[in-house]
Structure formats: C-alpha cells, structure tokens
C-alpha cells in the first residue's frame, strides 16, 4: 500500500521500474523508506544498509551510453584550494555596501550605538542563515535550484533566488561602468571635478548657486549629474533619453572582463580573487593611514562613533541593521549556495562561516575610519559640520569622497587608488551573483557543464544579454531606473525567500536532520561545533523567523507610508508599482513551483504534500560517495522521494549531538 507509514505489507513495485523498492537504515538511526513505501517490514529484513564499494573494473560493453548511471555523470569542478573558496566568499560579501553604506548608517543611527543592533542582527539572523546556505550547497553539491531535491516542494525558493540574482546583476555592473568612467577621468591632471581644473574655475569662484541658494556649487555634483549621468537632460522614468555612448562602452568593457574572468568557471575566477579580494584591504589601510594625518580627521572619526543611546528605541535603527546584514552578506541570492557547492564534502562549514562573517563585519567597521577621516578633513577645509558633507550610496562614492580626495596633495594618485578599489569590490560581488546564475542553469542542464565550448558560449550569451538590458541604465534617465531596481530587487522579495528557506529547512526537511547533515560533513567534529549547532538550531526554529517577520512588516509599512525618490524627483505611482512587481515576481515563484510539485505527485492532496516534502533518492549521493559507500547500480532508478520515519531516539536524544558512528 503506497504512502503507508505503519503497514506491514511487503513493498509494491513502482509501475514501470521493474525494481523492488528498497529500504535502508539511515546513519542517524532513522528508518528510511524509498519511493514513499512503508519501511517497517523491509527494515526487519534489511537491518543494515546494503551498499557496495565503487567498482574498479570498467563497465560492461553492453551498457547503453545514455544510461543514467554514475559512469555518465558529469564531473563537477571543485575549488583547487581552501583559500580560493574563502577569498571568493569574502570578496563576494565585502562589496560596495561595506564602503558606501555601513559608515553612513552608523553615523545616522547613533554612531557607535549602532553596533549593538548590528551585531545582534548578525548573530541571530546573518550567521545562522549564512551557515544554512553554505551547508545546503556543500552537502547537496548543487546550485540554488537543484539543491531543493532535499524538498521538491520548495524548488520555487531556488527559482526566486535566480530572479533576484538576475536583477542584481542587471544593475550592479552599471556601478562598475561608472567606476571605469571615473578611473579613466582620474588619469587627467588636475582632476576634472576639482577646483583646480580650468572648467571649474568660475563654478568654484561663485559663493552661491545661481538660484540664490546659500549652498555653494560643487563641481563634483556637476560632473556626476551632467557629464557622467546626464540626468539633467531627463524628466524621469518616462523620459530615459538616448544611450550615453561613453557609459555604454564602459559597461561593455565591464561585461567583457566578467566573461574573461569566469570563462573557465571557478578555475579562473578562483585565481582572480587572490588579487581582487586582497587589494581592497591594502587600499583601505593606506587610506586610513593617510586620513589619520589630515587636519580635521579626528572630528570626522568622532562624528562616526559618538554614541546616541536614544536611537536604540527607534525601530528604523534595527531595520537598518538587519538590512545591512542582508545587503553585505549576500544572503538569499544564491551566490553563497553556489560557491559552497564546489567545496569538498568534508569542508568545515561552521569554521568558514565564522571567518567570513566576522571578516566582513570587521571590514565594514574599518572602512568607516577611511571614509570619515577624509570627510572630516573636507568639512574642516570648508568650515562646515561633518554631517553636511556625509552621504551614502553612489552619492558618497562618486560625489562626496572624490571631492574630498581632490583636496589632497597628489589627488590623481589617491583618486586612481580609490576607484581601483571600488572596481575590485564590485567585480568580486558580481562574480558571486553570476556564479549563482550559471551554476543554477548548468545543474539543470548538465550537458552544458560537460562541454567547455558550450559552457563558454552560454556564459558569453548571458553576459551579452545582460549588457543589452543594462543599456537602459546608461541613458540620460538611467539613474532613475537604477534606483528603482536597486530599491526593490533586494527588498521584501528577498526577505520572503529567505524566510521560506529557513522555515522549509527547519520544519519540512527537519532541523535535527539538517544538524546531522552538518556533522556528517565535518570529520572529527570538535565539541565546540556541536555546541554551536544547539545555538543555530534555536535560531533557525525561533529567533531568525521572528526577526525576519519583523523586518518584513517594517518594510511593508515603510513602503506604504514613504514615497520613492531620487534627489528632487518623486517616482510616480506606476513606477513604484513596477518596483513592487519586481519584488513580487521573485517571491511568487515559491507558490507557483510548489503547485507544480504537488501536481506531479499522485493521491490525495495530503499524500501529494507529504511526498513533495520528502528528499529525492539522489540527495545523499554526495555523502555516500564521501564515505566510500555507494548504492547498487540501478540503471533505471527513478528519482522518487523517500521518507524519514521518526524513532524513539528522536524524542529521547539528538543523534547529531553525539556525532556519527560511521
């Protein structure tokens, strides 16, 4: 009787397979019933798993070439060294947000007091979700879509991650194009946005703006808005205007660099990160040392860190802390999951999680000294308060900070150094996002992975399509579309995707089983790892979902009460609705693909649901191969789900606390 959990009848044959259904005893003591059949009778007959070692002799000549056996499985690449994975993840996480967003949020939300909600959100949401993504990818050795063979009902989470990655890649490389433009302009002496340049002499000589404002005209703002963006020639979203050919060339160069660095997958990008992930730290150290020698730098640092304890009572402070964690760690986009899928099975994901997340947060905090020491000097030179020159986002990277660098002796050198750092920060982050997309597609179509030419051709077509779509963002009104995509691509849709990932693994797949999987991956798991798993288990089940719901509620309230704007331009209702549709498209993949999974099963709705949350047979192949135990070859094996039946052990002790006996 199919689907029974307590019957004693012998398992039936699955129609069309011609093979007896199998049952085995899983490593953690759970009785496993393959293909949805009752386990008890089979477990009595087969008290131990039936495994055979990998065959050392060649396969028989009469085996069909298209038989889905292990002999025809396309080999998956692996990182050539542990440092490549760590540097790739650090480069992916340590991005532009660490430089242009965290320092601004810190001073806006109470200075040093902001570190309290920041680290609380880090340890309760950031680190647990980071570990969950790395563990899923490494255990399943699969990308964001295929990895949900652990719970087919939630395949839509992977599709949603893919949608978010597409939106992020679409606008993120435009930032690199801007960086290219500024880098090329920095080769001029004097800098084209400095008061020493002949074109800016009249501007800097004016005491106030032509409209009678008391604010002095800034040549950096004019350079940014007129020469780079051309936004002064656009009226809004409805008026994008022509493509700016200089930016279009910079965008093309950016995508060509991405293609060349990723052409051979992690074998090429893993080598590039040795430079791109480490050079920004050298630049930050140099900028901090140089900033410490400037007049007014201490005022800038004091403004950065001076605590305002009353800000802790403001809900926006806590939301900003949580959003910064998601923004900087790259959670829920699929990049982490994809990069972890190329790890060796026995890599210590807990150790890597701690190293990467702590390194990311330390970089954010350290970058604040490089930013505010120089901004403090600019405020001192202008005779104004630091808050009048501080900004965030592109306004900091392309207006405020370049203006501050233009005041320094040797401004050309400092400007080149700064924009090379921004370029490398952006490229590393884009590597991770593009890896999430390519890995997802290559896992779904493995024949592309086995052919180097086809794989390179796919990557080239993907980069070219992104370039064509990105041309909208380098028009005169492109900054309006950039702001729209930036505001909604990683907003409520990303939070909903992450929330379902956390709840799905905790309650559908099983948090105890997930903890056991992590222990299985760590050889000689030390006691501190198991103690940490107790903490992570509490976060996954209780704390993290609660805080994600808080963030989601705040986002919806803020989205309803606040209008979207760029500068003085307020977005129309249809523009804001378009942004909401972007976010909704990402998270709606979850119910759509859940419905598809239910329709593919048979039986009552309850039976279909129970079958669709069971992992597929192939889910644990990576683990079985790692311990040298593979199941008997089944040439016609169907990827049917199996169920884990709880035993008394689940209610009396947690097997993962004692570790694996295998």
TrEMBL record:
GO BP, sorted A to Z: amino acid import across plasma membrane
GO cellular component: plasma membrane
Single GO molecular function: amino acid:sodium symporter activity
Xref: Pfam families: SNF
Annotated localization: Membrane
Protein family (similarity comment): Belongs to the sodium:neurotransmitter symporter (SNF) (TC 2.A.22) family.
Source species: Gouania willdenowi
Parts of the chain that traverse the membrane: 85-103, 115-136, 157-183, 243-260, 272-292, 325-342, 354-380, 400-425, 457-482, 488-511, 532-557, 577-599
Positions contributing to Na(+) binding: 91, 94, 98, 328, 360, 425, 428
Compositional bias annotation for Low complexity: 60-73
UniProt protein name: Transporter
Sorted UniProt keywords: Disulfide bond, Membrane, Metal-binding, Sodium, Symport, Transmembrane, Transmembrane helix, Transport
Comp. bias regions, Basic and acidic residues: 11-23
């Amino acid at each position: 009787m199919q689907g029974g959990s307590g019957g004693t009848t012998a398992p039936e044959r699955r129609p069309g397979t011609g093979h007896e259904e199998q049952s085995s005893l899983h490593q953690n003591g759970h009785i496993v019933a393959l293909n949805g059949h009752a386990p008890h009778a089979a477990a009595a007959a087969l008290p131990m798993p039936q495994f055979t070692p990998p065959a050392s002799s060649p396969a028989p000549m009469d085996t069909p070439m298209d038989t889905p056996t292990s002999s025809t499985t396309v080999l998956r690449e692996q990182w050539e060294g542990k440092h490549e994975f760590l540097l790739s993840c650090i480069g992916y996480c340590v991005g532009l947000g660490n430089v242009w967003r965290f320092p601004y949020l810190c001073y806006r939300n109470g200075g040093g007091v902001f570190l309290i909600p920041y680290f609380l959100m880090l340890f309760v949401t950031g680190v647990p979700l980071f570990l969950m993504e790395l563990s899923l990818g490494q255990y399943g050795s699969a990308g964001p879509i295929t990895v949900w063979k652990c719970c087919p009902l939630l395949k839509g989470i992977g599709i949603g991650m893919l949608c978010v990655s597409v939106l992020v890649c679409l606008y993120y490389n435009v930032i690199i194009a801007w960086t290219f433009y500024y880098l090329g302009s920095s080769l001029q002496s004097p800098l084209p946005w400095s008061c020493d340049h002949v074109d800016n002499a009249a501007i800097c000589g004016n005491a106030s703006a032509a409209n009678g404002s008391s604010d002095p005209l800034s040549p950096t703002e004019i350079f940014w808005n007129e020469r780079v963006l051309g936004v002064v020639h656009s009226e809004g979203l409805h008026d994008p205007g022509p493509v700016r050919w200089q930016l279009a060339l910079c965008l093309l160069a950016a995508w060509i660099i991405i293609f060349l660095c990723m052409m051979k997958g992690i074998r090429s990008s893993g080598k590039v990160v040795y430079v791109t992930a480490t050079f920004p730290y050298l630049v930050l150290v140099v900028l901090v040392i140089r900033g410490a020698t400037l007049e007014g730098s201490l005022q800038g640092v004091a403004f950065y860190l001076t605590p305002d304890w009353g800000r802790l009572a403001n809900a926006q402070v806590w939301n900003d802390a949580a959003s910064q964690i998601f923004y900087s760690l790259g959670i829920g986009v699929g990049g982490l999951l994809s990069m972890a899928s190329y790890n060796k099975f026995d890599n210590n994901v807990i150790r890597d999680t701690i190293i990467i997340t702590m390194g990311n947060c330390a970089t954010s905090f350290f970058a604040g000294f490089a930013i505010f020491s120089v901004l403090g000097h600019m405020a001192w030179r202008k005779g104004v308060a630091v808050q009048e020159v501080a900004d965030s986002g592109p306004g900091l990277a392309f207006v405020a900070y370049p203006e501050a660098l233009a005041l320094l002796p040797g401004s050309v050198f400092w400007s080149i150094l700064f924009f090379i750092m921004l370029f490398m920060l952006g490229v590393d982050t884009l590597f991770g996002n593009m890896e999430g997309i390519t890995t997802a597609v290559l896992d779904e179509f493995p024949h592309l992975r086995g052919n180097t030419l086809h794989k390179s051709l796919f990557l080239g077509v993907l980069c070219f399509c992104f370039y064509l779509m990105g041309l909208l963002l380098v028009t005169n009104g492109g900054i309006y579309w950039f702001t729209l995509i930036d505001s909604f691509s990683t907003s409520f849709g990303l939070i909903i995707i992450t929330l379902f990932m956390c709840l799905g693994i905790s309650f559908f797949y099983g948090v105890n089983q997930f903890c056991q999987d992590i222990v299985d991956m760590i050889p000689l798991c030390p006691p501190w790892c198991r103690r940490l798993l107790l903490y992570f288990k509490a976060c996954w089940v209780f704390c993290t979902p609660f805080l994600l719901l808080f963030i989601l509620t705040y986002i919806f309230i803020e989205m309803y009460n606040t209008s979207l704007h760029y500068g003085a331009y307020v977005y129309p209702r249809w523009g804001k609705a378009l942004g909401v549709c972007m976010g909704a498209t990402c998270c709606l993949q979850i119910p759509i693909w859940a419905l598809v999974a239910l329709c593919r099963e048979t039986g009552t709705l309850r039976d279909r649901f129970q079958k669709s949350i069971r992992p597929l047979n192939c889910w644990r192949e990576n683990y079985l191969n790692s311990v040298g135990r593979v199941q008997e070859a089944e040439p016609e094996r169907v990827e049917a789900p199996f169920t884990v039946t709880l035993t008394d052990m689940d209610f009396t002790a947690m097997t993962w606390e004692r570790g694996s006996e295998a």
